[in-house]
């Protein structure tokens, strides 16, 4: 399939099947913002749960946090965001469109109107959204919507150390909304002004920074392949020195092969002691760590794997989307890992029938507490299989007329399309064997 087509088809599928809708659509939409529909919210939750499971639940060296979006404005002075979280902005004098100067084509022509040498001088544009806290809108009441969740972790470093008995190397993980006034949002969920981040700040003795940086690069790459993104669609790209963020001594991006080319999926940065040192300076609090074993006090260095939940969901969708021909008919199938699929089991009575429906309801009630299910009795069974295939449902359970006699159902596999007959009283155990 041609690559631009792939993006268009995934966007259409998301709209048509209730994964992602354009935000405020009845008002004509709102500038690259998106809403997650009934299936989308399930899938995004699965992406975040898979991250949390791997980063927090399965480790004994990481704890979780959920810090506030609105923080003391000094946080953003200390972190360097007020001064340095900027993109270079230019206007085309001809068509008045705005662009990021570092996104312009080498030809120098305006991407919108084609005018040559029409750009204004680049000026720095701060990406943080400002708001006012309280009823008075003056400089003293300015607050920012956080542009990353990381700072909520740094300002809670002491609280966590004092309450969790963790000592470096250990990490604090957080999932939450972040906001950036991007100059050029676009490419569906890839770059938006409001998005969700999944960030880990991993605190280590200073001399161990490089070792842990390597460790987290491999670990994060492995997370995406384990969840089904093919290895040839992923790569690690170290940043050039002139690309590094103001806080970073080294960054590598996990890149994905998007339909428009390679691009960032996740960043892994060696933030050194930059943030803790800055917050110590600005807050007057001692944020160093005393290691009893070595009788040594130091400011931990930080390795940060930082991923976007929405961008990850886009990559999982793009990698999973397939079209194929089955017995002369086109089939669209999302080959999502079952851990990510919005619905794990569909319960389908063969036809809408007063004898089959109560048995289907009984089967649904048995399976529902254990798996996210969908019950669908509308239309031909073939059409209903296709509808489940295109949203990635791994298994369909069909209740047919034989079920009334043999108390067994058919379990149909999304990928191989094979069918197994399973007794109803063994169904949950059978599904548990085949699904996470
Ligand atoms: N704390 C580190 C940090 O903020 P970043 O590279 O700016 O690093 C991390 O962002 C990740 O967040 C990116 O790799 C991407 O997945 C996601 N992300 C960043 N800006 C985004 C945006 N405007 N829309 C969607 N996701 C975004």
Please, what is the average pLDDT? Answer: 96
How much strand content do the residues show? 25-35%
What's the helical proportion of residues?
A: 25-40%
**What shape does the CA trace take?**
globular
Query: What's the β-strand tally?
Result: 23
- Report how far the terminal alpha carbons are from each other: 31 Å
Instruction: Give me the number of helical elements.
Output: 13
* Backbone structural class: alpha+beta
Unreliable stretches (pLDDT < 50, length at least 5) are none
What is the CA-atom radius of gyration, in angstroms?
25 Å
Your description of this structure?
With 436 residues, this protein is of the alpha+beta class. It has 13 helices and 23 strands. It has helices at 3-16, 38-57, 73-78, 81-84, 150-154, 157-164, 209-226, 274-283, 309-320, 356-367, 381-389, 401-406, 427-434; strands at 20-22, 34-36, 62-65, 86-91, 98-100, 123-126, 130-132, 142-144, 170-179, 194-204, 234-238, 251-258, 261-272, 289-291, 296-298, 301-308, 321-326, 329-334, 345-349, 373-375, 395-399, 408-413, 419-423. The model has no long low-confidence stretch (mean pLDDT 96).
Brief characterization of the structure:
The protein is 30% helix and 29% strand. With 436 residues, it is of the alpha+beta class. The mean pLDDT is 96.
């Amino acid at each position: 399939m041609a690559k631009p087509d792939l993006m268009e088809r995934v966007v259409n599928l998301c709209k048509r099947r209730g994964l992602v809708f354009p935000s405020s659509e009845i008002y004509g939409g709102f500038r690259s913002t998106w809403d997650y529909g009934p299936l989308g919210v399930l899938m995004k939750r699965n992406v975040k749960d898979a991250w949390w499971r791997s980063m927090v639940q399965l480790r004994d060296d990481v704890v979780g946090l959920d810090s506030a979006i609105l923080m003391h404005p000094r946080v953003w002075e200390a972190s360097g965001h007020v001064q340095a979280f900027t993109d270079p902005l230019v206007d085309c004098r001809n068509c008045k469109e705005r662009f990021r100067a570092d996104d312009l084509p080498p030809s120098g022509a305006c991407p919108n109107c084609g005018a040559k040498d029409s750009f204004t001088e680049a000026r720095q544009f701060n990406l943080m959204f400002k708001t006012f806290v309280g009823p008075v809108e003056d400089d003293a009441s300015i607050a920012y919507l956080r542009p990353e969740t990381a700072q909520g972790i740094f300002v809670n470093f002491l609280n966590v150390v004092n309450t969790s008995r963790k000592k470096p190397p250990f990490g604090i993980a957080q999932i939450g909304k972040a906001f950036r006034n991007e100059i050029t949002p676009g490419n569906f969920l890839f770059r938006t002004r409001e998005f969700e981040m999944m960030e880990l700040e991993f605190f280590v003795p200073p001399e161990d920074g490089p070792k842990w940086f390597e460790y987290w690069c491999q670990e994060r790459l492995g997370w995406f392949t384990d969840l089904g993104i093919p290895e040839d669609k992923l790569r690690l790209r170290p940043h050039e020195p002139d690309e590094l963020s103001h806080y970073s001594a080294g960054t590598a991006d996990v890149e994905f092969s998007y339909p428009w080319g390679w691009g960032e999926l996740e960043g892994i940065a060696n933030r050194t002691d930059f943030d803790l040192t800055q917050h110590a300076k600005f807050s007057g609090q001692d944020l160093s760590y005393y290691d009893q074993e070595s009788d040594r006090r130091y400011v931990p260095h930080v390795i940060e794997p930082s991923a976007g939940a929405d961008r990850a969901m886009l990559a999982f969708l793009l990698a999973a989307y397939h079209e194929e021909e089955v017995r002369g008919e086109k089939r669209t199938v999302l080959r999502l890992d079952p851990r990510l699929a919005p619905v794990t089991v569909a319960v389908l009575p063969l036809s809408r029938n007063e004898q089959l429906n109560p048995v289907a309801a009984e089967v649904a009630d048995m399976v529902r507490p254990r798996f996210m299910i969908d019950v669908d009795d509308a239309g031909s069974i073939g059409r209903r299989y296709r509808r489940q295939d295109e949203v990635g449902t791994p298994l369909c359970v069909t209740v047919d007329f034989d079920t009334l006699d043999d108390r067994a159902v058919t379990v149909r596999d999304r990928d191989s399309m094979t069918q197994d007959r399973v007794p109803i009283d063994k169904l949950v155990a059978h599904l548990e064997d085949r699904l996470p």
